[in-house]
Amino acid sequence: MRLYAPWEKHFKKISTPFEHFLHAQTTTGMVLMFMTVLALLLANSPLAETYAHFFHTKIDLTVGSWELSHTIHHWINDGLMAIFFFIIGLEIKREVMVCELSNIKVAILPILAAIGGMILPALIYAGVNFGGDGASGWGIPMATDIAFAISALVLLGKRVSTALITFLVALAIVDDLGAVLVIAIFYTEQIHFLPLALAGGAFAIMIVFNRFGIRAILPYFIVGLFMWFFMLESGVHATIAGVIAAMAIPSKPKRAPHDFTRKTKDLLTEYDTYPACDEHILHERQKAILHSIQDSIDGVQSPASRLEHDLHLPIALVIIPLFALANAGIAIDFSSIGETIMTPVSLGIMMGLILGKVLGIFGVSWLAIKIGVAKLPEGASMSQLFGVAFLGGIGFTMSIFVADLAFVGNEALIFQAKVGILAASLFAGLFGYMWLRFVAKKS
To answer: How does DSSP classify residue 79?
Structure first.
């Protein structure tokens, strides 16, 4: 009998796609927290200069006279984060097609809450920074970090209902969609139309692949890589290519579930008719049958579903941690931290992520429920909804990403923005968790 290590037992557990999604987000949240602390420690240690120099090291790709040269920081933010945005696109597509956002009666509450949670923070920030140097950063407090927010809810266990968790997931997905649109529309300085047209042509090719029933991942990957490059050259942020590419990935399986069941039973029956050559070596026909079963398994899952499942772990353990390590490291002068927090940029972000998110998410939800437009999530109370609204104020990953776009080249404003994001996210996360654990009552 084989003995399994604890983590092997965990990964052998069968889970639904939603459970896998929650596990991936919780893993991301935990690793993200560790890497954020590590980045802050490095940036405030004797290794600070080495840390900064490493991420400003250039990596060049050269083919003949053509050259693509960017720093490691740039490759992470524009390259690896495109894969993160690709997953966001797949999640948006799944939510709209088969999950919470596919039923308008169920989706109306998280949609309205997300809209309120984007508009109010942006307005508050804009009011604080009106006419100032940081006015362009109004998009920073709009986003909710789905990994951190869901991690806090999952840690509460049975104190919160599953319906409340799905409400937060749907809200965060709509929030991500809003952030993607804001980045594409408002944080694009100059558009070069020829590369943009070529990116559109690449997307059209991917749509043709989809329509002709191509289910292999490689053709989409190759064309998607070209689309990313053309988007990078167009002036529109390259990560948007990830979201757009996700829309072209087939979401319908090649085979119906009942066909899979029948075919697999027939193949297993045939498999048992061939005796193995010995205890450790399969019959040649058995090997062929196993390949056919694997093809059937791939055929009954859509390419979008397979990609979302396969990419969650690399993103959780590699891409997002690298992003945090490259972007969260700020040298903090504790003697002047009070002055930094009181700057319009930091103050606007903190007010937006804390006050704006709570007023937007909880206020709009309360109003929608009271007038009968939407219903409270099953098993949840208004008090719990208030706590979830605070968790919506955790704006880490996407907020830092937008800050780099809003204040490109202005290190002072980027520093102020990151201080505001970290302070607000820490307060919102702790307060929301404590409220849901010790104050909020169940329905």
So the answer is: I
pLDDT at 21: 59
Superfamily of domain 14-187+237-252+302-439 in the CATH hierarchy: Na+/H+ antiporter like domain (1.20.1530.10)
- CA gap 294, 336 in Å, rounded: 61
Give the span between the Cα atoms of 221 and 224, in whole angstroms. Answer: 5
Instruction: Output the CA torsion 392→125→91→312 (10° steps).
Output: -70
Helix (H, G, I), strand (E, B) or coil at 238: coil
Rg of the chain, C-alpha, whole Å: 24
Q: Where are the domains of the chain?
A: 14-187+237-252+302-439, 257-297
Specify the pTM: 0.81
For 69, the enclosing helix (H) or strand (E) is strand 66-71
Those residues of the chain that have pLDDT short of 70 are 1-27, 99-100, 255-258, 275-281, 283, 298-299, 442-443
What is the per-residue pLDDT for 12? 43
What angle is formed at CA 341 by the lines to CA 339 and CA 347, rounded to 5 degrees?
Answer: 125
In order, the DSSP letters of 389-413 are HHHTT--HHHHHHHHHHHTTT-HHH
What is the per-residue pLDDT for 215?
87
* Residue 289 CB partners (closer than 8 Å, separation 6+): 267, 270, 271, 274
User: What's the CA gap between 350 and 342, in Å, rounded?
Assistant: 10
